[in-house]
Amino acid sequence: MIPAAFEYRRASSLGEALQLLSDGGDEAKLLAGGHSLLPLMKLRLAAPSLLVDIGRLTDLSYVREDGDRVAVGALTRHRDLETSDVLRSHAPLLAHVAGQVGDPQVRHRGTIGGSIAHGDPASDLPAACLALGATFMVEGPRGKRQIEAGDFFQGFLETSLEPDEVLVEISVPKTGGAGWSFQKFNRRAQDWAIVGVAAVTGANPGIGLVNMGATPIRATAVESALASGASASEAASHAADGLDPPEDLNASAEYRRHLAQVLVRRALEEAGAA
Ligand code: FAD
Fold first, then answer.
1. Which fold has domain 7-53?
2. What is the DSSP letter of 149?
3. Pocket, ligand 1, Cβ cutoff 6 A
4. Is the pLDDT of residue 60 over 90?
5. Nearest atom of ligand 1 to the alpha carbon of 190
6. Where are the domains of the chain?
7. I need a surface site. Which of 14, 31, 67, 108 has the fewest CB within 10 A?
């Protein structure tokens, strides 16, 4: 499939990217790794008239300690998350999840910022960010602002980013020795998750779900049950409470509800929840 015609501009700085976005208005789109946007354009499900390529803004590719948090530049590629010693030491869930995204080609091109800004409920990294209680740093013509991961995902492929804003950094708390787990259920290695679960236990527990609704979702019913002293298996029985998972060729909604319960239980057990 061939995308609709578009103009292409490569930004050489964040400031230039913001200016190009602002000039382009609603018809402009950022291009990072291109691994989610270009497939949509080829299917003609997206037809931006201007692509602003930020893929070479290396200033926005980093993983570094920031006090009791880890700061990750939005242009950091999945492969660089997967192999980051800082993440492996201080937020190993994020490094591990990045290593489960697609295949090596996807991991060498795709960026964490693109994965989050795209807001796809089937993506793995947004669920990990929800579980970790991440904060997203956003920059636009009105300045900078921070958005909590829990407030960011608004609807199917919809986020609270304004069209003229750029996601610049993802900040996650260091998890210390807390337990963690990522359970990704797919038929073939490298496939998207039919359902996935990212879990962190310890002082700041969190559970994020992949492909269980219109957005990446935090499993608040499970978290409440754990806080009330429920066992891992009791808490996991609430994994699909109030959720409306999608139906597709891979799975019915009922199957996904069942999977969520099984995978949350496994995740909690692996992460060492009571
Ligand atoms: P792009 O495609 O460049 O952009 C995606 C969207 O985000 C666009 O709307 C763009 O305008 C916007 N955007 C990008 N960067 C920013 C920014 N900094 N600020 C604001 N907006 C921004 N993902 C998984 O989670 N799990 C998988 O198993 C998986 N498998 C895949 C398999 C294949 C074959 C492919 C092609 C993709 C797969 N992906 C998977 C998706 C992959 O991880 C994407 O790379 C990622 O979701 C998007 O990142 P990107 O850098 O490619 O973003």
1. 3.30.43
2. H
3. 29-37, 39, 74, 101-102, 106, 110-111, 113-115, 117-118, 123-125, 161, 166-167, 192
4. yes
5. 28
6. 7-53, 60-173, 180-270
7. 67
Average per-residue pLDDT for the chain: 96
pLDDT given at position 274: 62
pTM above 0.85, yes or no: yes
Name the architecture of domain 180-270. 2-Layer Sandwich (3.30)
Measure 112 CA to ligand 1 centroid, in angstroms.
8
On whether the 60-173 domain is CATH 3.30.450.20, my answer is: no
The rounded distance, in Å, linking the Cα atoms of 33 and 142 is 26
Tokens of 211: 């492909």
Give 170's strand partners.
72, 136
Q: Which atom of ligand 1 is nearest to the CA of 120?
A: 47
The strand order across the sheet containing 195-200 reads 180-185, 195-200, 206-210, 217-218
Atom number of ligand 1 nearest to Cα 184 = 28
